[in-house]
Amino acid sequence: MVLIIHDERTPDRAVVAGIEAVLGRNARQFISPNDLTIQYYSWSCVDNCNPPQYQWFRLVKEKYELTSIPKIYSLLTPERDGQQLNVKIKAPVPMTVAVIPSKLADQVYDHPETLRSALDDTSCKQRGVQSLSFDCKFNVADGPQSIVVLPESNAPKHKKAEIELQTVKCVANCTAPSK
C-alpha cells in the first residue's frame, strides 16, 4: 500500500517532509497546518474472482493399419460451449476426417456410404488430407461427439496412419459461481 501526500503550496517538500516524519528522521514542519482526510478504498475482486483454468489433455495417440472400414473414436460429451479439440493426422494416402455426433458415427460404421450425408451436418471436417493439424470447437447442445477417419480411396495393404486427438478441459475453478 502506498500513501502519497502532495502539498501544492510547496512543491515536492511536503511529500519529502511527510516521508521523513514517518521514518522518524528530522521532520520539518509544514508551512501552515492542514486538515487531511484519508479515505481507504479497496479494489478487491467481488465477483468471479477465481476464473476457470484450462489445460490440454491427450485423448488418443495411435498408429493403426488402414482399412476400408471407417475408424471411429468416441470422444466426449463437451463440458462447455466452445470447448476445443485438436486433431493431428499423418497418413500415406488422402483421408477424410470429421467430428460428428456419435449417433451418426455409429451409422457410418455400419453403412460407410452414409458418410457423405453425415459430412453435410458438420463444419468440423477435412477431406483429402495426408498430414494436417486442425482445431474444432464443440457446443454442449451437440451432445456426444465422435471422430470418423476413412481413406478416400482403397487403403494400401500394411500401411498405417497416425492420429492424435487433444482437448482442453477445465482443471480448476470449474463450477460457475452461484448468483
Describe this structure in words.
15% of the residues lie in helices and 40% in strands. With 179 residues, the chain is mainly beta. It folds into 2 domains: 1-41, no CATH class; 53-170, Sandwich (Jelly Rolls), CATH 2.60.120. Strands 1, 2, 3, 4, 5 and 6 form a 6-stranded antiparallel beta sheet that branches. The protein is elongated, with a radius of gyration of 31 Å. It starts with 12 loop residues before the first helix and ends in a 7-residue tail after the last strand. The model has no long low-confidence stretch (mean pLDDT 82).
Give me the secondary-structure topology:
Blueprint: H1 13-23, E1 53-65, E2 71-76, E3 83-101, H2 102-110, H3 115-120, E4 125-138, E5 145-151, E6 160-172
Antiparallel strand pairs: 1-6, 2-5, 3-4, 3-5, 3-6
Distance between the termini: 31 Å
Order of helices and strands: HEEEHHEEE
The general outline is elongated
* Secondary structure: number of strands: 6
CATH class of the largest domain: Mainly Beta
Question: Any idea what the CATH superfamily of the largest domain is called?
Answer: Cucumovirus coat protein, subunit A
* DSSP strand content: 35-45%
- Calculate the mean pLDDT score and round it: 82
Quickly list its features.
elongated, about 15% helix, mainly beta, about 180 residues
Quick description:
By secondary structure, this protein is mainly β.
